Amino acid sequence: MGYEVHITRGEDWAESGTAPITLADWVAYVKADPEMRLDDFAEATTPSGETIRIDSPGIAVWVGYSAHDEGGNMAWFSWFRDHVSVKNPDEEILGKMCRIAKALNAKVQGDEGELYDSEG
């Protein structure tokens, strides 16, 4: 399943609708950041060769990620219901999330409510 960390303007990420990051806010940010690419989908191939694809407005990839590999390792950022989430981010991705949060006047918060350093 995985653990998610969120960029939110809400008091708690689960209440992001009270102070939303709109899809328009997110798309504007992604288009202005040369390290980000808006794809509106995420796609991966399983070890058995099956391709899994998720289509959703606001899915973006951080192409500046040091482990970025078009063959499979991608830092996907997913906008959904007024916040942006990343599944199982490492320290480098958390740093990028904090920089994005600062630009969006938001914060970075884990599934269990823990906050991450906004200085990134």
Q: Kindly, what is the distance between the CA atoms of the first and last residues, rounded to a whole number of angstroms?
A: 26 Å
Approximate strand percentage: 25-35%
What's the Cα radius of gyration?
14 Å
Strand order of the biggest β-sheet: 2-5-6-7-1-8-9
Shape: globular
Number of strands: 9
Domain tally: 1
SS field, number of helical segments: 2
The low-pLDDT segments are none
Instruction: Classify the helix fraction into a percent range.
Output: 10-25%
Mean pLDDT: 92
Give, in order, the helices and strands: EHEEEEEEHEE
Structural class: alpha+beta
**How is the main sheet built?**
7 strands, antiparallel
Give me some keywords for this one:
alpha+beta; 7-stranded antiparallel sheet; 120 residues; two-stranded antiparallel ribbon
Write the layout of secondary structure elements.
Layout: E1 4-8, H1 23-32, E2 36-38, E3 41-45, E4 51-55, E5 59-62, E6 76-80, E7 83-87, H2 91-103, E8 107-110, E9 115-116
Antiparallel strand pairs: 1-7, 1-8, 2-5, 3-4, 5-6, 6-7, 8-9
Description:
The mean pLDDT is 92. The chain is globular, with a radius of gyration of 14 Å. The protein has helices at residues 23-32, 91-103, and strands at 4-8, 36-38, 41-45, 51-55, 59-62, 76-80, 83-87, 107-110, 115-116. 19% of the residues lie in helices and 32% in strands. It is an alpha+beta fold and 120 residues long. The protein has one domain (4-111).
